[in-house]
Structures are given as C-alpha cells and as structure tokens.
C-alpha cells in the first residue's frame, strides 16, 4: 500500500469523509437560516463524528483486543485527538446546545455499547436506521439553531424531517450493498422486503424528501433546482446499487452527496 492509498484508507476508514458530510449538512443549515459560521458547533459536529463513528466501528475490537484495519495506530491517534477536540468544542457551546448534544451523544454511546443481554441499540432489529437519522438530524439541524438562539418553528422542524428522510434514504443504499454481509438478526429493510422493493421504497422516500421543500414558509427557487439535482443523483445511486458493488460505492460516493449538495447550494446562490 503506497502513501496515497494509506492516506485514502485513513480518510475513509478513519471517518474523516463521513465527518465532512456531517459538516456540510451543518453548513447547509447555516446557509438556509442565515447563520454565521460557528467554530464550536462546526468543530463539535466534525470531530464528534470522527470519534463517534470510529468508536462505533472499532469499540468491540479494542474491547476484545482484536486487530482491526490496516492503520490501527493512526486511526486510534486520530480518534483520541478528535475526542479531545470535540470535547473542547462542546464546552464552548451554549448550555441548551450542550444538552442537545448530550442527548444525541448518549444515543450514539448506547448504539455502540451493549446495554443489556440483547446487546446495543444497533443490534435491535429494525431500529438502527432511525437512531442514525435522529442523530444526524439533531446534530446538523437542531444544534446550530439552538446554539444561535433561534426559535424552532415550522421551517426548522420541516428541515429536520427532510434531513431525517435523507439519512434514511442514504442508509438504505448502504443496506442494499451490505445485504449479504449483515447479520440476519438485524432485520434490515432489504432483508425483510428484498432489494427491488427497497429501491422502490427509496424512490418513494425521495419524493417525500423533495415535497417537504414546498411545505416551508419560504420556498427559494434555487433550492428547488438544487434539490431536483440531488434527488435525481440519489435516485441513480439507488437504482444502480447492488450487493456486488464495491464498498467504496457507499463509503465514498454515496457519503459524498451532502458535500455535493452544499457545494451546489453555494454555487447556485452566487
């Protein structure tokens, strides 16, 4: 593995890429509601995601002292640094924002750490996607608004619902790719209804995602245009998703959608 491959491995498997996706969604919220860049919120979202995802992915390996990945030391150092940086950002947040962050942080911990004989929340059949969607929606929509002292009104909750739907849609693409590897006890959507019906469900959810924009008090033409592009792009990713696809189909390309979405919004606003 050469230097470029090692760096790319760390970028993907060290959860930097997914953290960039979360950060992009925070920036989207800022852009939509006219918020200034907030280093504490942005830093907590980014570094908290790096640590949180690495903790979820590798906690069991560390607890059982089993080897994981090709760059264990680098990912461990990255995770520890992210924990420290995320904690520093947490203490810079307002009190109400800290409570909001703590709520979703507890969900993330229970998602990874066994809380009963049945295991963690991730092992509970059918509940995984909702927990992840709640956490993403909370961190990328509610936290920036709460920290800015804005009232969580009609448009805020519609934005949360839209973000919640998007995360579920993206996770379903992951579940299609991973159907042959996921534990049958997880009862993922593709395991329960099959790949074809999951794709149809995803396309239906995309229509709901798109329709939410028209329910907001303020509807901006450039957002409609951007959302149209995003819906078509995600629909293509859904249609062409198969269990035979490379892991990087989701780990890189699908998780790039929030970054691409934010880039489109910025360009369309010029």
Write up this protein:
By secondary structure, this protein is mostly helical. The chain has one domain. Helices cover 72% and strands 0% of the residues. Keywords: Membrane, Transmembrane, Transmembrane helix.
In short:
This protein is mostly helical.
Sum up the structure in keywords.
270 residues, mainly alpha, 0% strand, globular
Any chance you could write out the topology, listing elements then pairs?
Layout: H1 3-13, H2 16-33, H3 39-63, H4 72-90, H5 95-112, H6 128-147, H7 154-177, H8 189-193, H9 195-212, H10 221-239, H11 248-253, H12 257-268
Keywords: Membrane, Transmembrane, Transmembrane helix
Transmembrane segments: 7-28, 40-56, 77-95, 101-117, 129-154, 160-179, 200-217, 223-241, 248-267
Organism: Flavobacterium rhizosphaerae
Oligomer: single chain
Rg over CA atoms: 18 Å
Q: Termini, distance in Å? A: 42 Å
Question: What letter string, H or E per element, gives the SSE order?
Answer: HHHHHHHHHHHH
Give the helix tally. 12
Q: Give the fraction of residues assigned to helices.
A: over 70%
Number of strands: 0
């Amino acid at each position: 593995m050469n230097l470029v491959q090692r760096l790319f491995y760390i970028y993907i498997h060290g959860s930097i890429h997914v953290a960039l996706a979360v950060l992009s969604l925070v920036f989207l919220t800022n852009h939509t509601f006219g918020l200034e860049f907030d280093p504490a919120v942005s830093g907590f979202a980014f570094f908290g995601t790096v640590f949180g995802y690495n903790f979820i992915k590798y906690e069991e390996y560390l607890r059982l002292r089993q080897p994981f990945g090709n760059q264990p030391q680098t990912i461990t150092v990255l995770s520890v640094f992210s924990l420290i940086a995320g904690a520093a950002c947490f203490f810079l947040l307002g009190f109400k924002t800290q409570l909001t962050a703590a709520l979703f942080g507890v969900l993330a911990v229970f998602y990874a750490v066994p809380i009963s004989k049945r295991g963690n929340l991730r092992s509970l059949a059918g509940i995984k996607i909702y927990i992840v969607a709640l956490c993403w929606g909370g961190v990328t929509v509610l936290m920036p608004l709460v920290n800015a002292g804005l009232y969580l009104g009609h448009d805020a909750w519609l934005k949360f619902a839209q973000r919640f739907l998007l995360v579920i849609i993206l996770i379903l693409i992951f579940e299609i790719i991973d159907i042959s590897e996921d534990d049958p006890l997880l009862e993922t959507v593709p395991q329960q209804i099959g790949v074809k019906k999951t794709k149809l469900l995803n396309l239906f959810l995309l229509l709901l995602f798109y329709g939410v924009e028209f329910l907001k008090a303020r509807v901006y033409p450039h957002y409609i245009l951007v959302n149209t592009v995003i819906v078509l792009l995600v629909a293509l990713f859904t249609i062409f998703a198969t269990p035979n696809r490379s892991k990087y189909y989701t780990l890189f390309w699908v998780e790039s959608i929030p970054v691409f979405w934010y880039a489109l919004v910025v360009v369309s606003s010029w």
